[in-house]
Write a structure and sequence with these properties.
Blueprint: H1 3-20, E1 40-48, E2 53-61, E3 67-74, E4 80-87, E5 94-100
Antiparallel strand pairs: 1-2, 2-3, 3-4, 4-5
This protein binds 2-acetamido-2-deoxy-beta-D-glucopyranose.
Length: 110
């Protein structure tokens, strides 16, 4: 065989070996990233004396993951329920629940 023929064989061999080279390994599954907690805060209040609507809530979380919040609801029987709660570490939801009889809370706030 001439050296040209050998070169041709070699070229074909290279092409075939390139074609049968295994497909690239699949990209590794995206790693779950642990971002630190983002501080946040919200609050809302609804007061409508005519319709006897009085409720609201608030909550804030800090960069350590501690959550503090509360909510209140005026019940139709005149009791005002307030709940204040914290969640810290593995504490779970820790509420303090209070009822105030005959609350009449309208206009109490400045
Ligand atoms: C959040 O809500 C609770 C229950 O209504 C209340 O006692 C507390 O003062 C509120 N906190 C803020 C920051 O508004």
């Amino acid at each position: 065989m001439s050296s040209i023929t050998w070169l041709a064989y070699a070229f074909v061999l290279v092409c075939v070996s390139v074609q049968v080279s295994p497909a690239p390994a699949p990209a590794p599954a995206p790693q779950e990233e642990n971002y630190p907690p983002m501080p946040y805060e919200y609050k809302y209040d609804v007061e409508d004396q005519e319709k006897l609507l009085y409720f609201g809530a608030n909550e804030s979380g800090d960069a350590q993951g501690k959550v503090v919040g509360g909510y209140k609801v005026l019940h139709p029987d005149g009791r005002l329920m307030t709940v204040e709660y914290t969640v810290q570490g593995d504490s779970g939801f820790v509420p303090i629940i209070k009822f105030e009889q005959n609350a009449n809370p309208f206009g109490k706030r400045k």
